[in-house]
Amino acid sequence: LNKKDLFEKRIIKSPLTICFPEYTGSDTYQEGVAYIKSQYESRDKSPSKEVYAHVTCATDTSNIQFVFDSVTDVIIAHNLRGCGFY
Question: In which residues is GTP bound (predicted)?
């Protein structure tokens, strides 16, 4: 989920129900992000694959570095499991 900085500003002015009419939570940044993440995660129908949601701002280099590090960790762990080492 990219552009968290823009979402944080826009959720104050535009309720989430504009895009998600079924949404019943409050129009706060935290609840909005949690709802959108849950929507992505609920659509993961493949038991052999996992969905990892990260809330990012692409211009924040430390944030993007964290995402790259997380992805690297997942790939390494997956490969180690495949070899029987994890």
Answer: 2-5, 58
**Whether this model's pTM surpasses 0.85:** no
Q: Which residues are annotated as a binding site?
A: 2-5, 58
| pLDDT tens digit sequence for 21-48 | 999 999 999 999 999 999 988 887 777 7
Domain ranges within the chain, ordered by starting residue:
1-55, 59-86
The annotation places the binding site for GTP at: 2-5, 58
